[in-house]
Specification:
single chain; L-amino peptidase D-ALA esterase/amidase; 17 strands
Length: 349
């Protein structure tokens, strides 16, 4: 029987920590595997900001991944991964290249520049600090307005005035010897919903800001003809630059970025497939998802401690565990967030 665990650090050999600047509304979350993990990645959003994703493709030669960085700051936040690499090198963690070590660090960023202070972004010092917190055991992995989730929001098709606060969520699940954990920075254009019932948890607020409106229903109320239809919410005609025109008012400012970790022994091809399977969690818990205005990305880290059984549908089992773990991480990112920067959170409704 599967057992639900606390967070991604329940996977043996995986360490994680957050660092954030609460005033600026940004931060980073670092997931570290000091011994090196087999990595995979799946990028489905139309506007990703990433580092070292090509290297994770099955046909590439590098077999180890030492850290994943989930950062705020949009493309500027990729600087945090430089600090992660430098701190791992200082600790002797990385790929042995004869004259030293080169840590393999993959990263993805969310756009959070509209929350706090836009000129402040995660930097190399913040990344190095997150590594120290993770490996020195300074604190548990906080969820909500922490790390890469510090400035996350959801439900943004009608602009920031109708959006809600979300944040960082994590979860893990154990089935026999197998453990799968997930962590997610939930900054989606769409709404977060209960994966089982579809009930809204956080997302686009109604006009009087006391409930959540289905973005999918709203979008389906708009046709594709030459004239602008009336809004299903207001009955008024939408203009060309309306947030409900052909694209949201603030395009490419949304993304849900995640990391899946497991103690299973996987090839790079299997890790890539696991990342692809895990994307089902986005479809179950975020509606709509993978839009042209999201940069949705999922990394996988497999530590290789547990051999998959050859006489069982091992990848199907592992994929189901990853989906369920990531679903819960996304939900936790919404329910554990608190109101900040003028945005209401799920706990306020």
């Amino acid at each position: 029987m599967a057992k639900v665990l606390d967070d991604i650090t329940c996977v043996p050999g995986i360490f994680a920590a957050n660092v954030q600047n609460e005033e600026a509304g940004t931060g980073c979350t670092v997931i570290v595997c000091p011994k090196g993990a087999v990595g995979g990645v799946d990028v489905r959003g139309g506007a990703p900001a990433t580092r070292e994703t090509d290297l994770l493709r099955p046909e590439e030669t590098v077999q180890q991944l030492h850290a994943v960085v989930l950062s705020g700051g949009s493309a500027y936040g990729l600087a945090a991964s430089c600090g992660v690499a430098e701190e791992l090198e200082r600790r002797g963690i990385g790929l042995d290249v004869g004259v030293g070590v080169v840590p393999i660090v993959s990263s993805a960023c969310v756009f959070d520049l509209g929350c706090g202070i836009a000129s402040v972004r995660p930097n190399s010092q913040m990344g190095a600090r997150a590594v120290n917190r993770a490996l020195d055991g300074e604190a548990p992995l906080e969820q909500g307005n922490f790390g890469g989730g510090c400035g996350c929001t959801v439900g943004k098709f009608m602009g920031p005035g109708r959006a809600m606060k979300a944040g960082l969520g994590s979860s893990a699940i154990q089935n026999g010897d197998l453990v799968v954990g997930a962590v997610a920075c939930v900054n989606a254009c769409g709404n977060v919903v209960d994966p089982a019932s579809g009930a809204p948890i956080a997302g686009m607020l109604s006009e009087n800001l006391d409930g959540i409106v289905s973005e999918e229903d709203l979008l389906m109320g708009f046709g594709n003809g030459p004239s602008q239809p009336s809004s299903p919410l207001t009955g008024q005609s939408e203009s060309e630059d309306s947030p409900m025109g052909s694209s949201p008012k603030f395009p490419r400012t949304n993304t849900t970025i995640s990391c899946i970790a497991t103690n299973a022994r996987l090839t790079k091809a299997q890790a890539t497939k696991l990342a692809q399977m895990s994307a089902d969690a986005y479809a179950h818990a975020i509606r709509p998802t993978h839009t042209p205005n999201d940069g949705d990305t999922i990394f996988v880290m497999a530590t290789g401690e547990v051999e998959l059984l050859s006489d069982a549908p091992a990848m199907d089992i592992l994929g189901t565990m990853a989906v369920r773990s990531l679903e819960q991480a996304i939900v936790n990112g919404a329910v554990k967030a608190t109101s900040a920067y003028g945005y209401k959170a799920a706990c306020d409704l």
